[in-house]
Design goal:
Length: 104
């Protein structure tokens, strides 16, 4: 009796060994990430408008009398380059790896 090769699974032709133990992948260096700011930068008067409450996106304040732009005490922080994280720990996940897309 000849069997049709399409009906035979590959596992019957090429069985796996009993136990395949893969070593765990670990990052080369685990750095302590020192984030300067973890809360998002809020847009000025984002709490006064319902449409801004949905998704708070940053817009730079440009008013001539804006206390937010003039950095008065008690106002939120403006976005600037000083809040950038360390280049070595930027975009690093808590497990120590970076997320990237694979095209294959």
């Amino acid at each position: 009796h000849t069997q049709n090769l399409a009906s035979v699974s590959l596992r019957t032709l090429f069985p796996l060994p009993e136990q395949v133990i893969m070593p765990a992948v670990k990052p080369l260096v685990r750095r302590k990430d020192a984030k300067k700011k973890t809360t998002p930068f809020k847009r000025f008067q984002w709490d006064r408008h319902a449409k801004l409450n949905q998704r708070v996106t940053w817009r730079r304040p440009r008013g001539i009398d804006s206390s937010f732009r003039r950095r008065f005490k008690g106002r939120p922080d403006l976005v600037n380059v000083g809040f950038r994280n360390n280049k070595k720990t930027r975009h690093v996940l808590p497990n120590g790896f970076k997320k990237f897309r694979v095209f294959n």
